[in-house]
Automatic annotation (TrEMBL), chain A:
Taxonomic superkingdom: Bacteria
Organism for this UniProt entry: Agromyces kandeliae
Biased composition (Pro residues): 119-129
Pfam families to which the protein is assigned, alphabetical: Emfourin
InterPro entries cross-referenced by the UniProt entry: Emfourin
Feature: compositional bias, Low complexity: 96-118
Protein name: Uncharacterized protein
Region spans: Disordered: 87-129
Automatic annotation (TrEMBL), chain B:
GO biological process terms held by the UniProt record: proteolysis
Positions of region (Disordered): 54-107
Highest taxon in the source lineage: Bacteria
Enzyme Commission number(s) of this protein: 3.4.24.-
Protein name, per record: Neutral metalloproteinase
Keywords assigned: Hydrolase, Metal-binding, Metalloprotease, Protease, Secreted, Zinc
Residue ranges of domain Peptidase M4 in the record: 124-207
Top-rank EC class of the record's enzyme: hydrolase
Cofactor(s) named in the record: Zn(2+)
Source organism: Agromyces kandeliae
PANTHER family from the UniProt entry: NEUTRAL METALLOPROTEINASE, PTHR43579
Function: Extracellular zinc metalloprotease.
One GO CC term on file: extracellular region
Amino acid sequence: MEVEVVRSGGLAGLRLTWTVEVEDQPDPEEWVLLVERLPWSDTPPAPPEPDRYTYRIRCEPHVATLAERQVTGPWRDLVDRVRDVAEPSRRRADVGGRAAPAQPGAPDAEGPRTTAPSDPTPAPPAPGD
Amino acid sequence: MPQPPVPRESRVRAGIVPPYLLLRIAAAEEHYDVAADAARRSLLRDEPMRELRVEGAHPGLLPHEHTRSATTGRDHDVEAEGEGAPVDAAVPEPAPDRRISDAQGAESLPGHLVRTEGQPATGDVAVDQAYDGLGEVWALFERVYGRDAIDGEGAPLEATVHFGDHYDNAFWDGERMVFGDGDGEVFRGFTQSISVIGHELAHGVTEMTARLRYRDQSGALNEHVSDVFGALTEQYAMGQDAEAATWLIGEGIFTELVQGRALRSMLEPGTAYDDDVLGRDPQPAHFRDYIVTDADNGGVHLNSGIPNRAFALAAVELGGFAWEHVGRIWYDALTGGTLRPNDGFAVFAAATLAAARERYGDVSREVAAVANGWRAVGVEPE
Ligand SMILES: [Zn+2]
């Protein structure tokens, strides 16, 4: 079981990813309990606050996107724990590989998105929209 | 890209520098501090110089500023009527109302109020930098654009410093600007940079005016507007013209361990840093390179590079003080009431062109420069 925390946004727009292999931890049962206790289905979208962090927390089959101010209680416990045991990676999977350049004046030139099905975010409109 | 591990202890506790970073501590002090210190000169001391500057290059500004009063309120459209109007000595000069709080390392807001308007420096660097920086941003908006504070009615400018433990960020929470101290390894305190303070306050102005939705293109525009007024705050405070300006956002925010000049470059997006740990500045400089991503509210801090460059190119083409022409055009577009929260680059570009025509005439250098700026980054106004 893998737990991944991706922190994006922030004034600097820098993205950090922490990944924990639960089986490799000395206390895997505690991790499993912690993950199961999380209110995965109770994460209402929060209005974004400029320059605040966004957290995307994933542990298959669950995924949740939280505004920084929603990272409280058990979510905060999990994030703190992940940050304690894992080193952050600054890999930018979304830069270079997934860019779908939209051509001004040619909205249909926008390529298909390779987004995970769990993500409801619509593609940004072409400038002609 | 290789991922040099960041030692945990150094992430958690500042002051422990990882060995690989020690190897390249730059001997050069750079000129960060010089710029920042110059920009932090006291508001009062700078005032006469500013007014001269403003008066010289844009005769409409000074009278305009003095027509603002209880009766004319915040409406920037009164400028024409104000031209040549006599200065009314009975109208009190507007002044900022700054309130700086200290979160004392906790992630709770607002924290303890530690410095209010008119109080002397506290000796706490972050508190005093925030206070001085807010004064500079207030001065830009009030003296150049006739907008008294975020709401245009002189509401207090609220900021909290020392937020969180080695907190690597600054943000606008809808009511106040919040500044972390940085981890000491990648980031120094976020009050170091006038452009960052201006950036945060401008988020408040956008929220009160065009209300650009913080997602995808409209979100990148929201970010762009904050970078515009952040950069202009610094240029105005330092008396820099478009040629002399760095066009950097957050100069002095990185520690000397980072190979980079700033968080972003408005003129040359993608060139602000290139560092072993942080990687390369990922901002696109042209619309063909627009980044589609789910992170960062749809890449708002990435794609802002595109309109940023359009703005900076227009400013450089016109020369002189950017806050007086392109800054004014952008302010008009932002506050003119035509923009809608979901508007994207093309509509925003059209709004800036319309604002330029309105203020400077259909056939003007200003309109041509703005059009050239957008063309250079591949955005077709509509
Ligand atoms: Zn911002």
